[in-house]
Amino acid sequence: MKAEILSLLRNSGEYISGQEICERFGVSRTAVWKAVKQLKEEGYQIDAVQNKGYRMTDSSDVLNEEELKSRMKTKWAGQNVKYFDRTGSTNIDAKKFAAAGVPHGTLVVADNQENGRGRRGRSWQSPAGSNVYFTIVLRPVFEPDKASMLTLVMALSVTEAIENDCGIRAEIKWPNDIVINKKKICGILTEMEISLESNDIQFVVIGVGINTNQTEFPEEMKEMAGSLLSEGGKKISRAGIIAKVMECFEKNYEVFAEKKDLSLMMEAYNAALVNKDRQVRVLDPKGEYTGTAKGINEKGELLVQKKDGKIEEVYAGEVSVRGLYSYV
Ligand code: BTN
């Protein structure tokens, strides 16, 4: 009920009388008053004026279960939300929830992670109150070797959500870092559990960290890291961007699931690829080499043209790709 009132007030922007809210949801005036009181306590700015009703003046940057639910416009992605003010890692939580049987699309969100995890065993700085940390649980019905492509599906969805919600052009550093003005503002960590008996995917979790309203970065990260606020100049609603990512991801996942490859979204991905037609260094354990990145193929591999004209298909699991002169 609180989520419905929240959604009504946010979407209206005008005064809505207590009577209208009562009639719409079939509840008493006291119930409405109580729900509004709770919303105010959670940090929402709501004006209450006699003979006019209630109006939301500024939803601040509240992040909690109701706020997320009230913004979700999806069928399954993010429809079941687990929110924590503080946790170790949303990826770890998501894996536990998945093992316990939560439905496809369940979303785990935290305001603060004490043990945020990055790729290649690195940690992910996760201070409270300013950024976005979430993980979605998926139960795909395809072969395990296809799962790594879901990371690229998420990367594309995050760039679309940022452009849509913030009006900023975000780019992808293959395979799944999101950059704005060459600064990394988002990282994605995908993990999978396979059934030992059947070799089928039991679940996949995709964890996303978006630097949203952070303005100060540790000295060693300043060169490379940014946020939507530092690069776009505008404070962003964290619940809003999460809901938008869910919307874009749900749409892209369904397109992906049709073919079980990236053929229908390769063009959009390549258009967002910051490395495209740039010189890259491929850190292949079998031997480093340089070449020009030409875009991805339908399997999500990066096509790198070497000096002799030969095209190498670079698989993300094995190698890492760097720009010759900077991080991108
Ligand atoms: C990277 O190294 O670029 C990937 C970073 C992924 C961070 C996110 S934050 C939410 C989720 N929970 C984690 O512990 N990690 C991912």
Quick overview of this protein structure:
By secondary structure, the chain is an alpha+beta fold. The protein has helices at residues 2-12, 18-25, 29-41, 65-71, 90-99, 149-166, 228-232, 238-259, 266-272, and strands spanning 45-49, 53-58, 81-84, 107-110, 132-138, 171-173, 177-180, 183-194, 201-210, 279-283, 289-296, 302-305, 311-314, 320-323.
Mind explaining what this structure looks like?
With 328 residues, this protein is α+β, with helices and mostly antiparallel strands. It has 3 domains: 2-58, Arc Repressor Mutant, subunit A; 65-271, BirA Bifunctional Protein, domain 2; 276-323, Roll (SH3 type barrels), CATH 2.30.30.100. 31% of the residues lie in helices and 24% in strands. It has helices at 2-12, 18-25, 29-41, 65-71, 90-99, 149-166, 228-232, 238-259, 266-272; strands at 45-49, 53-58, 81-84, 107-110, 132-138, 171-173, 177-180, 183-194, 201-210, 279-283, 289-296, 302-305, 311-314, 320-323. The strands form 3 sheets. Strands 3-4-5-9-8-7-6 form a 7-stranded mixed sheet, with helices on both faces. A hairpin with a 5-residue loop joins strand 11 and strand 12 (302-305). Helix 1 (2-12) packs across helix 4 (65-71), helix 2 (18-25) crosses helix 3 and helix 6 (149-166) crosses helix 8. It is globular, with a radius of gyration of 22 Å. Bound molecules: biotin. Residues 89-91, 113, 116-119, 122, 124, 133-135, 177, 187-189, 207-209 line the site of biotin. Residues 89-91, 113, 116-119, 122, 124, 133-135, 177, 187-189, 207-209 line the site of biotin (BTN).
